[in-house]
Amino acid sequence: MRFFDRILIALEGIGMALEAIRANKVRAGLTIAGVAIGVFVVVAMGATVHGIRQSFQSDLDEFGATSFQVRRRGVGFNACDGTDDTCPDRRNPAITLDEWAGIRAMPDVETATAWLSGQTNFDYRDRHVTNVGYDAQSTDWIKTDVADISPGRSFSRAEHDAAAQVVVINDTLKARLFGDSDPIGKQISVEGKQFTVIGVFHTKAGFLKSMDGRGPDKPRAILPMMTAYRHLDVWRRGLLIMVKPRPGVSQAVVMDAVTEMLRGRRGLKPSQPNNFALVAQDRMLETFDQLFGAIFMVGLALSAVGLLVGGVGVVAIMMISVTERTREIGVRKALGATRVTILWQFLVEAATLTSIGASVGLMLGAILAWIVRTNTSIPTSIPGSAIITAIGASIATGVVFGMLPALRASRLDPVEALRYE
Question: Kind and range of the H or E element at 66?
Answer without folding.
Answer: none
